[in-house]
UniProtKB/TrEMBL annotation, chains A, B:
PANTHER family: GLYCEROL-3-PHOSPHATE DEHYDROGENASE (PTHR11728), GLYCEROL-3-PHOSPHATE DEHYDROGENASE [NAD(+)] 2, CHLOROPLASTIC (PTHR11728:SF1). SUPFAM superfamilies: 6-phosphogluconate dehydrogenase C-terminal domain-like, NAD(P)-binding Rossmann-fold domains. It is an enzyme of class 1 (oxidoreductase). Belongs to the NAD-dependent glycerol-3-phosphate dehydrogenase family. Residues 21-177 form the Glycerol-3-phosphate dehydrogenase NAD-dependent N-terminal domain. This is Glycerol-3-phosphate dehydrogenase. It comes from Robiginitalea myxolifaciens. One of its GO terms (molecular function) is NAD binding. NAD(+) binds at residues 102, 158, 273. Keywords: Lipid biosynthesis, Lipid metabolism, NAD, Oxidoreductase, Phospholipid biosynthesis, Phospholipid metabolism. It catalyses: sn-glycerol 3-phosphate + NADP(+) = dihydroxyacetone phosphate + NADPH + H(+). Residues 198-338 form the Glycerol-3-phosphate dehydrogenase NAD-dependent C-terminal domain.
């Protein structure tokens, strides 16, 4: 992972940089945060969201009424549309910031081929329909070569971007020139960036961390405390390292921000939906009632099934006691208390 | 690091195990927690504390009036004394649980040689007078061979032991047989144990984590958020790994609970004294006024100076931007805002 720094000379030439034409697809909090960041550097960008009324509000008042509404946006720079095809047609580079649960149905609307576009995924999680991470899904279903697929990785709560609190993003792409370009687009006063080639590892880490945040929630719901949480996270990062290594074995330091940092910001966040969902499971809610109560599905729910099924396809086995425990609880109706008691004996 | 598990057969023989005679030295919260844990397995143990009135209260009511008073103790098992020599004379194994700032003055009271005793340190931090970790200090100043020196490492807040919330301890000793014995003494329903040979690494990690918790406090005081905290911790564990490797280069997984877990439980605790101290520094208090306000000195304050000075003695240099920044702020009156702005550019 390489820190990406413009020197001051480059900074002063900022206006001369030829930024690509970028469309952000999605109207949620992470999409809104990325639009805010990109607007710091770019004079113009396209932004697709389904809700015409939200788009209207942004045009009129300069903030998203539904997500991180404290984030001030410059409507003068934004080509807002609720037609995904017009945004995609206008741009060579696309940032996908659609929740993974809706990604397939949104991409089905496309009448324009994606294969010559550069796509960066800011989706955190697995595509439920294919059980794949977004990079793999795009590569396989849309014929996009890996050199044109990138990932925007945290650790980054969108809410803190709204407050312009210093945050770090990692841009991963097999073609590091493209990662550098996206890095230039995103780097600003409150965003530091790094580039990486590890698109597969970064995406899997982002997916797995949701399972570990869910596990942290279950533990909390069951009454385990901070000592246990620290042990759980320390076991989680070792499990993540083993898993990602089996999936894609390149030289990586799992303790870099894009992996460990992303795990920590989610696993220690009390606002995380995965943690909330897990907490309800730990407190005795059934999966169904927890989903109904939350009125949504936590990413970690899908991630657990996918991670579990994908690991069964590994030629060499990998020990994943945390994923196994969460899978047993969510998909095999096992008793959370018993599963975590057994898990606790496996941790060290 | 090896998980230490009694099998059920051994469990059932519990009463037959010949536990050593153990004295716990110290009357604070961690000492009290260890006494509670040891009382689960041992029928009798010696406990030295300075305060006669606290000892009296424990004898009468079965709880420590000053620290983690929710922890129920069994006075029938406890040989309480305020004479350190009588406790040390009665026992072959000693557990040091005296705050490092008072360790030297307490040990000066001893009229009994320590060199044939087995000493386990539960002290978290550096001995201010020698600038050494406790193991090194005991080895050098009391002629105790490293085979007789052990460490009891967390992650473990004493408060959660009082509540019997499942926690994990690592017992480190060059002589792993002794680590195993101490592990048998401590393992119980709410304590899982592991053994390790890495006494130096474990103690340095426990010392360094206080600096990183202090840094987390400064960052919070300066207004940085959760995204930054995750990046800081992810940089801290890499810095810790480099530092400890330079100090004592053996094969270790820095992501084990005794290192990363201990860093996380402290770095994410909002009750940590190091974090509180750092927070005040970040908010603009001078070092002196923060100390006066807190009415105590945070371990991380000493640890910062020692870690900084010790690393200067390394033959090969090691990059420690976080320690350097905290040192500059605490000991060279540098501006926290500027130091952290520079530090932020070095992190990735």
């Amino acid at each position: 992972m390489k820190k990406n720094k413009k020197d001051s000379k480059e900074q002063s030439k900022k206006k001369e940089v030829n930024y690509p034409n970028i469309a952000v697809l999605g109207g949620g909090s992470w999409a809104t945060a990325l639009v805010k960041i990109l607007s710091e550097n770019l004079d113009s960008l396209h932004w697709y969201m389904r809700s015409e009324s939200a788009a209207d509000h942004i045009r009129r008042y300069g903030n998203n009424p539904n997500y991180i509404s404290a984030a001030e946006l410059d409507p003068g720079k934004l080509q807002l549309t609720n037609d995904i095809n017009s945004a995609v047609a206008a741009c060579d580079w696309l940032i996908l910031a659609i929740p993974s649960a809706f990604l397939v149905q949104e991409l089905e609307k496309l009448q324009i081929p994606l294969k010559d576009k550069v796509l960066f995924s800011a989706v955190k999680g697995i595509v439920p329909e294919s059980g794949q991470i977004v990079g793999e899904h795009l590569h396989e279903h849309f014929d996009i070569p890996y050199e044109n697929i990138g990932v925007i990785a945290g650790p980054c709560h969108a809410e803190e971007v709204a407050l312009e609190r210093l945050s770090y993003l990692t841009l991963a792409c097999a073609d590091t020139d493209k990662a550098e370009i996206m890095s230039d687009c995103l780097q600003c006063d409150y965003i530091n960036t790094a580039v990486s080639k590890d698109i597969i590892g970064t995406e899997y880490a982002a997916m797995l961390k949701n399972i570990y945040a869910l596990a942290a929630g279950i533990a909390h719901g069951l009454g385990y405390g901070d000592n246990y949480q620290a042990v759980l996270m320390s076991n989680a990062i070792r499990e993540m390292k083993r898993y990602v290594k089996r999936r894609y074995n390149i030289d990586r330091n799992i303790n870099h921000s894009a992996y460990l940092g992303d795990l920590l910001v989610t696993g220690y966040s009390t606002f995380s939906r995965n943690r909330m969902f897990g907490n309800m499971i730990g407190k005795g809610y059934t999966v169904k009632s927890a989903m109904m109560e939350m009125n949504m599905v936590a990413e970690g729910y899908y991630a657990t099934r996918s991670a579990y099924e994908i690991k069964k396809s590994f030629t060499k086995k990998v020990k994943t006691p945390i994923i196994d425990a969460v899978y047993g609880i969510l998909y095999e109706k096992k008793n959370p208390r018993k599963e975590f008691a057994q898990l606790s004996e496996k941790m060290v």
